[in-house]
Amino acid sequence: MESEKITSRHNTLAKHARAVRDGREALAQIFIEGLRLSEEAVRSRLVVQDALYTERFEGEERGLALLKELKQTGARLSLVSDDVMSSVSDTRTPQGIALLASRPHTGSDRLSAALKAASSNPLLVIIHGINNPANAGAILRTAEAAGAQGIISTKGTTDLFNTKALRGSMGSGFRLPMWERAEFAEVLAWCRGNRIHTVGSSLKASASHTEVDWTRACALVIGAEAAGLGTGELSMLDETTRIPMRPPVESLNAAVASGIILYEAARQRAGFTH
Question: Are 118 and 149 in contact (CB under 8 A)?
Answer without folding.
Answer: yes
